[in-house]
Amino acid sequence: MQGQSSMIPTRILVPTDFSACAERALDYACALAGKLGAKIHVVNAIDAAFPELSVAFTDVLASLRQHNTTALEKLLTPRRARVTFGETHVVDGDPRDVILGMAGTVHADLIVMGTHGRRGLSHLLLGSVAEDIVRRAPCPVLSVRLESPRLKPGAAYTPGPPIPTST
After folding, report:
1. Is 6 left (phi over 0), alpha (psi -120 to 50) or beta?
2. Residue 25 to residue 66: CA distance in whole angstroms
3. Between these two residues, 124 and 70, which has the higher pLDDT value?
4. Residue 108 belongs to a domain with what CATH number?
């Protein structure tokens, strides 16, 4: 089929917040990149919730940047023998904006990211970075949960309760 090869990702972006969920997404991306011969780019966003305070905390942010850069290298080192890594970045800013900006910078053709799967009040209060990225990304997004529910062989899928709609 013509154009099929252009659908195979060669540049995968993996955002990380160093959570177990993000690490699982990185492992998933490594497995995928290993099969496809793709290069993985990794980004970590340092979210200064109040940018105006970042001036007052310049030393703290510099220390955090250095810490996260070291943590990123520690995270990638054992995986370097299996896959090729491209750029790694620690960037100040809202994670949503950082991830979307980096997707353009590295010309990502796939973003693989963890999702915590929050629902209800915690989702309302904390939002979902993954959900926003899925909506706004310039390329496909693969979201990876820490623990994926698995159906037992032969079991039927049972949907949850219907979502109420307002009319």
Report:
1. alpha
2. 23
3. 70
4. 3.40.50.620
